[in-house]
Amino acid sequence: MITLSVRGLPGSTSEQSLAKLFSEFGVVHSLSIVRDMFTGKCRGFASVKMEGHEAKLAIAGLNNREFDGSVIRVEKERERRGSFRRRR
In this structure, is residue 81 part of a structural domain? Predict the structure, then answer.
């Protein structure tokens, strides 16, 4: 399973429209759109989980593609490094 980072989404993006876009390349296992706390509009980015080969096809097919009037960027989400917690 690969998590994709999607950036450049328009404020009107819905879960349904994003799922439909990515389903052209395979099964979308989950997705989450980051929304503004007060307005509920999309803040321009989301995460999408897909199987490896399908995710690679989605990156190739959707990166720098126009979606609802905005050019979106799709890439494999970077792994976060371990948190640096202070020892007591």
Answer: no
